[in-house]
Amino acid sequence: MPNPLLNPVLRFFGRLSYPRLFALTAALFAFDVVIPDFVPFVDELLLGLGTLLLANWKKRKDPADLV
What we know:
By secondary structure, the chain is mostly helical. The chain has one domain (7-58). 69% of the residues lie in helices and 0% in strands. It contains 4 helices and no strands. The chain has helices spanning 7-14, 18-34, 42-58, 63-66. Helix 1 packs parallel to helix 3 and helix 2 (18-34) packs antiparallel against helix 3. The termini are far apart.
């Protein structure tokens, strides 16, 4: 069962495009590495963002389809 505190946040992040989602995940990961456990639930949020990144990576459109 998803965490009720993080579910709305992950739903919002799920609507972001791949480059923005990647930048947000990278920044949050770097922040968590520099200052561990500064924000509660950041580890769970990173796991959810990583899942969204992989899901968006698979759904990317073929450049030939865009023409």
